[in-house]
Amino acid sequence: MANRDVTEWTAKTVAQAILNSGMNKHQVATQTGIAYRTLDRKLHGGSDFNWRDLLVIAEVLGISPTQFTPPPFVEKAAA
Fold it and tell me: CATH number for the 3-68 domain, one of 1.10.260.40, 3.40.50.12780, 2.40.10.10, 1.20.120.430?
């Protein structure tokens, strides 16, 4: 998975998590302390989310931050 693909995958995954939560982007931005314009840019793949962003978003949404781990980084369980 190329870097651009990871950026796009993460953006789509975070956007879907926000949608699933019933919150809107403004609420998430306010509760995470991420500026709305910055959050919106990242959700559109304009720049990468950093670890802090992903951790605080997961906390606000009440989900595990592991949901934001791209598939190539997830270890396969031993058979």
Answer: 1.10.260.40
